[in-house]
Specification:
Length: 528
Amino acid sequence: MIESYKRKNNLEDNYDVIVIGSGMGSLTAAALLSKEGKKVLVLERHYTAGGFTHVFKRKGYEWDVGIHYIGEVQNENSPIRKMFDYVSQCNLKWEDMGEVYDRVVIGEKKYDFVKGVENFKNTLVSYFPDESKAIEDYVQLVFDCNKTMKKFYIEKALPNYISFLFAPFFRNKYLKYSSKTTYDTISSLTTNQELIKVLTAQYGDYGLPPKQSSFAMHASVVKHYFKGGSFPIGGSSEIVNTINPVIEKSKGKIVVKAEVKEIIIEKNRARGVVMDDGRKFYSNTIISGVGVFNTFNKLINEKLSIKLGFKRDLLSVKPSVAHGCLYIGLNGTAKELKLPKHNIWIYPDKTDHDSSVANYLNDQNSDFPLVYISFPSAKDPSWEERYPGKSTIDVITLLPYESFSKWEGTKWKKRGDDYEKFKEEISKRLLNELFKQLPHLRDSIDCYELSSPLTTKNFVNYDKGELYGLDHTPKRFNQKFLRPRTSIKGLYLTGQDIVSAGVGGALFSGLITSTAITGINFMKKIYK
């Protein structure tokens, strides 16, 4: 049972491992180490565990805040599925979204992304019959890039002296792809700007448009969905619900409303953590899953952070994009409302992705650069039993943090009338985008609520409300400090900052962090 730190609890003073944060990377590391007999304490400042995998409930509805679809889990032998099965004791179940997983809408044109590599290629060729070679070469390039990824991430788990000697062998092939932008790479295959726009339509899954993003990040996301998308049955809260018993079996705990104020460091060794109420918990192994900015700027003494070069390292990376999500509740079942399982990506038809983003950042009354629509209640076969006669929709767009900075320091739900008015204006615009695609839903809306970058900051504790941790630029993948080991003995990092955006990236970060700590080849163990 997940406990609240604010209530009477039976927490001990000493643990084998202390994990700060309960996102996917933290949960994975905690589960893997627990299965090795370690007593693990997971400390989460939010009132619910799971990071971006958590859900919230309001007005008789439930919404998933971060998980909209996961790739590769329908293949029972894929690494990501094997890992999920291992950390959840095979209790986490998945529902396939069907043949079409993403629909791209550009003006009046629609393009479907369908599961299966050959189906994907053939469908694209049907839209762009003169571009068959470019499409074939593009898919091959995606596979070629992903083949180099394994060694790149293995290197992150290696001891420092081995990494120093053999880093080029592990890293250079991947860096050949990661050091180029998505646009530069794809434009070397085709000059058809509409095709490039369609191929890069999932850029919202990692937050950067093609002329800014690393091709390696793009290729990782694209391949991730080649075999379709899936959704956790019972909602994304089933992730923490199925992992928690694994942690508890080794006498560990997940504790919410438990804010860590500082990591205790003595003679360059991590010794424990200090809570916001002054209580201390001790361990010689501390894992921070709250991001490199939070870890090095907030949890480590500033003088020490400067002395060890952490502050300098942070100058080489920057936070990713902030977003807003309109959570909508509707009267009626998914079948009655004719809600699709696939996601819808909507873009302006006159400009490329990068120009659309630039135009919007310059004038937020211009077209949204992208609008993403997800239908979680239609994806989950258990939804109708849990919430009969109800449905949900998520509508997401980019929202710069600076647009909300005037309300910094205000409290959630108490930010004032101007804030609510501003959110309502955005909400109405997003509803209009939904109704353009599904006009029959106008009279079925029961309620809606918009999260802003300040909401993300409040609950996930990212300073600029960023969604994906660090920007996935070519420069980001060259930063060698983005690895599990830090220069402080016993202090490790996990989460999307040390691998890449998304649940899959965070899942694998937990694995490489656990490998760095124990030296165990967990993937070999998982496949036994």
